[in-house]
Design a protein that fits this description.
homodimer, 148 residues, mainly alpha, two-stranded antiparallel sheet, 7% strand, DNA-binding
Chain lengths: 148, 148
DNA sequence: GATAGTTGTAATATAGCATGTTACATCTTA
DNA sequence: TAAGATGTAACATGCTATATTACAACTATC
């Protein structure tokens, strides 16, 4: 399994929104061109970001505006915004029918839950440490390298 | 997205193999009964565990034997054994067609790769800390609680 | 205020993957 | 030698991610 590409698409979009901030016509079609997906995908991802309060948009009006500075938007914010993982169950998909008549079967879920949560927490903690400013800086650094 | 239930199934199987160690006929059908899935699923999961060197089996002969003590089998060992995530690409699925003619598009991948790896590493590090002995102890504790 | 451009969203299509199931050759054990 | 088990291939099925078309509602500009 893998975390949906919606996540990297969202990071790409926010980076592009900032990078092309002063340009006209940074609409869903332009962004779709940069990301390499259908404009409707861009609009739905931006829709999720808007619901999460990360960007502002105006229906009918081109583009989107970041609601916060880049260093206040973390990977975790985006990961949550675009529903990267199942909200109800979390990162791990537990098999659904362990046998209640078996001592292992009826207790394994409880026995594992805390450990699975610890793994997910470790991952999410790291995501909270990484901001879009980090990505922006790395992107600009790569662009500068090209110039040489 | 979610990590395949093959992972929790594998943990369940190993726990059951240990718990019912002294019982006869702990075959794929018995285990399938405890886990609540088809016996063929059990055999394929055990097959992966065998390929990874975590259990020994003998074709035609019932059951499986743990290759190492429980405290030397980590969540990470199992997660790797059962191919919980894509081997080539890792935990995150990067969108596949960023535009090489766009400065952001042709650099975003390089700019993100290190950060994505850091997230995956954080998760895997936590998985390496958790052993099947931990799960076994928690399971037995839950079983004891029932007795009261 | 009319027109062109844009967003938001519903509806549908499609492909890939996880899981279920049947079947059977091959092996072990008694 | 017979019964029971594994290993694995082949196929079925449902779910999810992504792509795509279509269009109503809104904005910006002339």
């Amino acid at each position: 399994m893998q975390i949906t590409s919606r996540f990297t698409i969202a990071v790409h979009i926010i980076t592009a929104l900032d990078y092309f901030r002063d340009m006209d016509r940074v609409n869903s079609e332009f962004l779709a061109g940069s990301v390499g997906v259908n404009p409707v995908i861009v609009r739905t991802v931006i829709g999720k970001l808007r619901e999460a309060g990360l960007v502002h948009t105006l229906k009918g009006s081109s583009g989107a505006e970041l609601a916060r500075p880049l260093d206040e938007i973390t990977f975790y914010d985006i990961y949550e915004a675009v529903d990267s993982v199942n909200e109800d169950e979390g990162l791990f998909h537990f098999h659904e029918q362990p046998n209640p008549e078996c001592p292992v079967g009826r207790n394994i879920h409880k026995a594992m839950d805390g450990r699975l949560a610890a793994v997910q927490n470790a991952m999410e903690a790291e995501m909270k440490r990484i901001t879009l400013k980090d990505v922006m800086e790395d992107t600009r650094a790569e662009i500068l390298k090209e110039a040489k």
